[in-house]
Specification:
heterodimer, A: 121 residues, alpha+beta, 2 domains, 3 helices, rod-shaped, B: four-stranded antiparallel sheet, 41% helix, 23% strand
């Protein structure tokens, strides 16, 4: 029976350590792709500009048509209909006496609800 | 019997070769890795740029009347009076501005979506821009409030209304 050779154990140990090192680095790299991609994707998916744009338009309506509830209601109907048709977003805006009181926005991924007491941006 | 001299040299040799291999592996993978993530980041930046430009165009350059904080903006004027050339020039001026003398090469195609009040139908029409040829593009939108006076944009109702300007933006 051949005797077990105990020589060169250091070589094997080094080999192991370096193997683990490479494996660890590979996992890090692998994760880094996902991190960059998912971050960018979630930023793109979040309708930040849609909500900002909707708010600024509604704010403008309250200042432009303070004494013209008809025009304001017309514009709100436009926004509701076009949002559904073009952005697949459900928008509901409550208005009373020339003031917009509530904004509800839902595009299936993000929901945004706001009660407006004062337009402070 | 195998000679056991110079084991440290052997270890050193193997360690060095593994280091070289790891470096090569790292260098090769990093170049490949960055590509898929990058396109998303560029999209993100382009989208932000586009909506910023539209927001800037939808604000009047100056106002004096404290009771009217929202005078007509250049963007509203261009849509109301159906001036796609004015819109294109202003949009591209803002979009293609860089910190250097060189101009950027962004192109766009703009659509207007509007609602017909009598029929309740939502329609869409091409407003301005160049032809879209399957380049990688992002979409930015802006609500535009239209006055009932002097609205000569074909297809739109003659009333105070909100239309949606949709701009397809890509790098030429």
């Amino acid at each position: 029976m051949a005797r077990l050779n105990e020589e060169g154990q250091w070589i094997i140990l080094m080999g192991f350590i370096i193997c683990v090192g490479i494996f660890f680095l590979a996992i890090l790299l692998n994760q880094s792709i996902l991190v960059g991609q998912t971050t960018a994707e979630s930023v793109i998916e979040f309708p930040k500009t849609d909500i900002q744009d909707l708010r600024s338009e509604l704010r403008m309506l309250t200042f432009r048509y303070p004494a013209d509830p008809g025009s304001m209601a017309d514009s709100i109907d436009d926004i509701t209909a076009i949002s559904l048709y073009n952005k697949a977003a459900v928008v509901r805006i409550l208005e009373s006496g020339g003031q917009i009181t509530e904004i509800h926005y839902n595009n299936g991924v993000t929901t945004y609800d706001e009660t407006i007491l004062w337009w402070n941006f | 019997m195998v000679g056991d001299d110079a084991q440290l040299y052997t270890i050193e040799g193997i360690a060095a070769s593994v280091l070289i291999l790891t470096t090569v592996y790292l260098v090769l993978t990093t170049t490949v890795v960055f590509t898929p993530g990058e396109t998303h980041i560029y999209d993100m930046q382009l989208e932000q740029l586009g909506s910023d430009v539209l927001a800037a165009m939808d604000n009047a350059p100056s106002w004096n009347d404290p009771n009217d904080p929202y005078p007509q903006s250049p963007l509203e004027a261009a849509i109301e009076q159906n001036q796609p050339v004015v819109f294109s020039e202003l949009f591209l001026t803002y979009c293609n501005a860089t910190t250097e003398e060189r101009r950027d090469d962004l192109r766009f195609s703009a659509n207007i979506t509007y609602r017909n009040e009598t029929s309740g139908q939502v329609g869409s029409k091409l407003f301005a821009g160049s032809q879209y040829n399957r380049e990688h593009a992002v979409t930015v939108t802006r609500w535009v409030n239209i006055d009932n006076t002097g609205n000569t944009q074909p297809g739109l109702d003659l009333r105070e209304q909100s239309v949606l300007l949709e701009v397809l933006l890509w790098r030429g």
